[in-house]
Amino acid sequence: MLLPRGADRGYAVPIHSEEPQMHKTMDTRSAISGLSVGVTTSAKESGMAKLTPIHREVVGGMPMAAQQEIRVLFATLLPGDVTPYHTHRFPVTVYVTEGVFTLELDGRAPVHIKAGEAFVEPPHIRMTGRNLSPETPARMAIFYVCEPDSPFADPVEG
After folding, report:
1. N or C: which end of the chain has fewer CB within 10 A?
2. What is the pTM of this model?
């Protein structure tokens, strides 16, 4: 890993916590290597980046090929819209930005993902998504890591 000049001398880097005007420090090597993901680190006391953890989850079923393709998509379901019944080959992370996205996974109770929330759709589970609202669109960012050129979803019989 390439470190900035002086990083090997352990310069302190402030970490901003939830409490106002309270800083913690760590050595630059740890900060740059991402050992404290979800904690904001900065090279200055004032800080520039403000990271807010939204979701963290350990999952199985990620692609194992030598290379992976990363897709970031944006979807809108208008009131009453329904996705086709489908599965995914790899986990899909959904972050809802507006409205409520209802996900119906086989063998599970429906999941209602509200604006500001994230959910990881498991691979190989039959599912459909809905916008049950009569007036508000459901808008979401979708993050998908897959083997190159894999389909996003595989249709299945309902």
Report:
1. N
2. 0.71
